[in-house]
Amino acid sequence: MLKITKFGGSSVANAEQFKKVKTIIESDPARRFVVVSAAGRKDAKDSKVTDLLYLCHAHIEYHVDYLPMFRLIEQRFLDIKEALSLNTPIEPELKQLEGRLPELSLDELVSRGEYFTARLMADYLGFPFVDAKDIISMHYDGSFNYEDTSEKLKEVLKDKKTFVIPGFYGSTPDGRIRVMTRGGSDITGSILARCLHADEYENWTDVSGFLMADPRIVKNPKNIERITYSELRELSYMGASVLHEDSIFPIREYNIPIHILNTNRPQDQGTLILDNISDAATGPLVTGIAGKKNFCAVEIYKNHMSNKIGIIRKALTVFEKYNVSVEHIPSGIDSFSVVVHADEVKSNIYEIIAAIKAAIEPDSIRLVEDLALIAIVGRNMNARPGCSGKIFDALGQNHLNVRMIAQGSDEMTIVIGVEDKDFDKTISVIYDRFSRDN
Fold first, then answer.
1. Tens of pLDDT along 264-303?
2. 177-179 and 335-341 strand pairing
């Protein structure tokens, strides 16, 4: 049995969290390869090391005194070292880093959060340290070279049975450090799980897995015990952000389970993410509910639209010209709507509307603002009838007006649009209706 074990920033924020990590690692011999994020917030008033590193770079770029900021970063690592009586000589490296700050690229500088956290964690666990720049191989476009990464891992494993590796970064063919998107340590863990053919990828964070709804909206929502990769993608895209949504891609085709667990409550069951779950008759009808506010929709009406070729394409070409991503396109016989993030069009929405008018000469066009999108996700909705009816019955009884409806062809997700002001109430009503069935 082999598990790749990744710990997020909250799990390595200070010496006390390091101790929890060590207890977890020592409780299971399958946990031989450990990925760590940069030290996160110690408390609500604290800052993440990565945020401080980005700020330090901004100070350098705008010719502001950056040394006070660097001292804060440096002290975070020295505090952990002192509290745990570690031997790793990070002081000379920190001094060298200080001297090189003005010449460092942004990627190399912000990667140092993971680098020094991993150095200290390796010392504390008694594991060898392996630098991600020597293992995680990336193409110049930022995509991953799994074959090269696998070959480098084979060399490492010739003389190492365990190791700690920093997440979040790798290197391009010219040896330059390149970071991933924020939360990229999740992706590092999935790359290792793929290349080492792991049996399971454990992702330890500060929550006990995915919840059926946002706990800021719904009081004590149920935990999701099992979820498919596809459901995870849908919920993550709509704001359920326990795990970086791109972390599923390296391992999905290998069907390696991802287990979301809580460093502060290791006894909790967590959430297991799988490629396929065969429980259509007995499993939950709805897996989770998530959503986002601040969308708008351009509603377009044109008589006999269904008899005309290229109407929707011409409208979408306008949005493409303005570099706007389209979220949904609900349509009828003579009308369709284009739903986009309001922030993407706040400076030019009326230019876009004018361009659409010129391109397709609609009979009417209307802008709907303050729109929220809510996704109801469930792998078993297509196998058991009545889900849509239950949603709209519950919303109707609570006098909630639905402005838009969209459903994917796989019948796994129903997306509804409501006014921003009704967002919280809508999620609560849908949760209350389906939590009884689950």
1. 999 999 999 998 888 877 888 899 999 999 999 999 999 9
2. unpaired
